[in-house]
Description:
Layout: E1 4-8, H1 12-29, E2 36-40, H2 44-47, H3 53-56, H4 60-71, E3 77-81, E4 93-98, E5 106-109, E6 122-124, H5 128-137, E7 142-144, H6 150-158, E8 164-168, H7 169-174, E9 182-184, E10 198-203, H8 207-214, H9 219-235, E11 242-249, E12 254-262, E13 269-277, H10 282-294, H11 297-300
Amino acid sequence: MMTLRLGTRGSPLALTQARMVRSALCAAHGLSPDQIEIVIIKTTGDQVQDRALADIGGKALWTKELDRALLSGDIDFAVHSMKDVETVRPPAIAIAAMLPRADVRDRIIGAAGWEALRPGAVIGTSSPRRTAQLRRLRPDLIITLLRGNVDTRLARVASGEIDATLLAAAGLDRLGRAEVGAAIPVDVMLPAPAQGAVGIEARADDAPVRALLAAINDAMTMACVSAERALLKALGGDCHSAMAALATSRGDGTLQLRAMLYAPDGADAVGASAHGPADEHGWVGALAAQLLAAAPPGIRSLFAA
């Protein structure tokens, strides 16, 4: 068998996730690690760290270089954190598999919990969702832009430059830092769509590679994340939109999907939930319409649906 080329970003977390995919493929197909070459692709999102994603091109900053490498044949498949992948993908690229989803919660680093933050504490984040949720919980907090990899963000807290930050529990766990930070329950801070999920994309017409990847697909993760992404697409949300969503299995072939939309300052929010079959998403569009109909103009204007 020829060597497969796995494309990934070069951050420590991205490389860890790439190795997870390689290990899963080796276990599923009896391959040796040297039959899957990890190819690091530099992305604009990794290189530009001083501005919010929404101001410099959105989620495509994480994917466009990997897309180009995939479509040109320089790599055979690409590994992504699914929450960084745009909802509208090129038709020539298919989401071929997802690994089992990890902890979907956020963790706060720098305090025992959001309640324990000092009055007027400075919190670093670049996420409109986390910003709105924090401001809704604690209007006294000062939110400042913070981007960079996990080590960069932890260092800013350790240095005292900021009081705290929020990171995905899944990423910390994958980096062997399960003890870092305090997890925030999802009924306090609902996660971003697709948080905690690792996805693998391949060329849509590459049947042999897609078949290899199908063997490591976790069907329930794929179903839940696909429903969350369908909701985001139906809402017309982008990197400026503060929204949260989480789908879970009801155990009978159906999913429960809970979602929240927020004003940027957290002063207003609207939430709703719905359930429906895991294998079709008509009901997800109905949930999006319900949310937008209930949203005040300041929230509705942030969505293009």
